[in-house]
Amino acid sequence: MSATPVTTARPKVLIDTTMRNGLIVLLILFVFNSLMTPNFLQMQTLSVNISQVATIAIVAIGMTLVIAAGGIDLSVGAVMALSGALAPLVFMSDSLQASPVLAVFLAFAVALSAALLCGLFNGYLISHLGVQPIIATLILFISGRGIAQVLTNGNLQTFDYPAFSVIGTGKFLALPVQGWLMLFLAAAVYWVVSKTPFGRYLLALGGNEKAALLSGVPVHRVKIGTYVICSLLAGIAGLIVVAINSASDAARNGELMELDAIAAAVVGGALLQGGRAPIFGAVLGAIIIQLVKYTLLANGIEDEVALIAKAGIIVVAVYFQQSVKE
Amino acid sequence: MLNNDGFDLRRYLRSDMQSVGAWIALALLIAFGLLRYENFGGAYNFSSFLNYNAMFIVISLGMCFVIMSGGIDLSVGSVAAFSSVVAAYLSPHGLSVAMFGGVAAGMCFGAVNAFFIVAMKIPPFIATLATMLAAKGGALVISDAQTIAIDWSSSFTVLGMQQAWGILPWTIVVTLLIALCLWLVLEHTSLGRTVLALGGSEDASVLMGLSVYRAQIFVYLLSGACAGMAGVFLASGFGAGQPLEGIGWELTAIASVVVGGTLLTGGKGSVLATIAGALLLGLVFNILNFENGLGTINLSAYWQMVIRGGFLFVVILLQARVSRPLQPH
Questions:
Q1: Residues in B touching A1 (Cβ below 8 Å)
Q2: How far apart are CA A61 and CA A81, in angstroms?
Q3: How many distinct structural domains can be found in chain A?
Q4: For residue range A83-111, what is the model confidence (pLDDT) as tens digits?
Q5: Lesser CB count within 10 Å: N end or C end of chain A?
Q6: Any idea which fold B42-319 has?
Q7: What Rg do the C-alpha atoms of chain B give, in angstroms?
Q8: Which pLDDT score is estimated for B12?
Q9: What is the pLDDT of residues B9-47, one digit of tens each?
Q10: Any residues with CB less than 8 A from the CB of A102 and at least 6 apart, and which?
């Protein structure tokens, strides 16, 4: 076991070194695309990229919290599938056709309650039973998507329901609604991390769990809290994906999202050992990953090669972080 | 307060009981199957069950060593897919060339993992995650995202489609040989003991002057090679190299290792119990299929994942008694 780094929590610094490096990378990508990629500086390109980055970023924010407390959550993709499968089941049910407002409200409530339960389940196993996070969240990773498929009988649920689809296809100030939602959620979580006792506890816990426990941090509750928030955010992302597609596919929704989210969090400056929660870093990480993918695709490089590039980004990002730490 | 780093005899005994428990559960499940289903013990079910599960056993064996050393290897599924494509391309040259090529391809990814982890000090979780993506991309690139048919006239098909002595699939024979070698390595070589010591405490192992790096390089090369072999089995058994296969295999392998009683914190584990764990997970499916066949229940394929997750949950609940969390006074 390597020694846990005791990092001092400095949540007030909005732009640290990792963030600055990230912004430089982003700038290089932006300039490169402006010069090389046709139609890059178009409103439509921006919209497409924002709508794709929003779901990754929203999940990555939650993942950053979990990682900051020294954990990991592999179940986010499965939670997305579950919440995405539940919502259409609710608002398409016959008894609710009379009142669309109630139907959409209930759809959100049911889907997010399911996500909340998933978070409680993960958190309880990890905090109270002491199961390692990888294993505990593996349970829902395996069975969560299965539950979603059982609920929908494995069928693709298509729908035409504008009141619900607005979270995926709507525009506000000419930009996709989910982009604004992403910024709002990031700001809210940032506030929680930097201004509330929960945030302090979280960083203390990730820095050194034993020390946090001995100094009276409610370790169990804080741990459960991170997993609940992470699952809720994944639930929201699942709803957005379903809304974008006007269809819910339990087999595909959120597939491999855990990898994207972890990658975005790590590129954004989260330390896997815990103790740092760069929330806007996660958003930045998601944007960088998305932009690299877009750059490669727009310049005719295949999707498969883009995967390899993503692998390279992760390794380089973590390598630099390790060296910064030492 | 419990001392989590210290040696705890009670915990040691309990975790040993779980390895035995896996075999007892396996025996009970087999007895149940034999009594309940007519064809359960038949030659066809026996050999097809073993043939299908050979690839999961073999990646679980590699994973077992990685986990015992305190690491994790998430890349095994995509590496198996990559190797299956390599083996399919090499199949016209015969079994030995295809098998060697597939395993060598797997070892290359294992070497990359080892380099990231040992030389660059990247945490295993992240390093192998990156290799997972790279292997997946690589498999799609070299196969052009198509399944690659094997040469049906070559000796390559023997491995995945024929049985030794008319009953035991060749894949399981190879798997058992690998398991025997690994058992010998683990129990009777200094390398094997170093792997366990490393998982117990890396700092202590370094201070004791054990060749920690050698052990780390070994486990990741081994895991890569095992994943490569699983890919060879896949190509030979299904008649094609499958670049899109292998999704979630790493988690099946981790689950098998955990069910077998290897603690995820490292430092403890058993080759035999890992085989029991993999067989147990496979058997749950097999029994479910028979139950569906009887018509008593009608569970769709989607239930299988739910049940597999539930099974893992039960095992974890039992195991939670072994490794308790930090508790306030």
A1: 5, 70, 201-203
A2: 18
A3: 1
A4: 999 988 888 777 777 777 788 888 889 99
A5: C
A6: ABC transporter involved in vitamin B12 uptake, BtuC (1.10.3470)
A7: 20
A8: 54
A9: 555 555 566 667 778 888 888 898 888 888 888 888 888
A10: A96
When CB atoms are compared, the residue of A127, A130, A308 closest to B134 is A308
What residues does each domain of chain B span? 42-319
Question: Which of A142, A153, A311 is the closest to B305 by Cβ?
Answer: A142
The C-alpha of B130 sits at a distance from chain A's nearest C-alpha, in angstroms, of 4
pLDDT higher than threshold 80 for residue A140: yes
pTM above 0.90, yes or no: no
Tokens at A50, concatenated: 């924002």
Q: Would you state the pLDDT for residue A228?
A: 95
Q: Where in the sequence is the domain holding A155, given as residue range(s)?
A: 17-325
Q: Is residue A9 part of a domain?
A: no
**What are A157's strand-pairing partners?**
A248
Which residue among A130, A131, A315 sits closest to B130, beta carbon to beta carbon? A315
Q: Is residue A211 part of a domain?
A: yes
Which CATH number is A166's domain given? 1.10.3470
Instruction: Judge whether A30 lies within some domain.
Output: yes
Q: Concatenated DSSP letters for A228-282? A: HHHHHHHHHHHHHHHHHHTEE-TTTTTTTHHHHHHHHHHHTT--TTS----HHHH
Residue A150 lies in a domain: yes
Q: Which CA distances in Å does A267 have to A105, A279, A315, B225?
A: 35, 12, 9, 30
Closest Cα in chain A to B5: A1
Count of CB atoms situated within 10 Å of the CB of B195:
32
Q: d(Cα A156, Cα A146) in Å, to the nearest integer?
A: 14
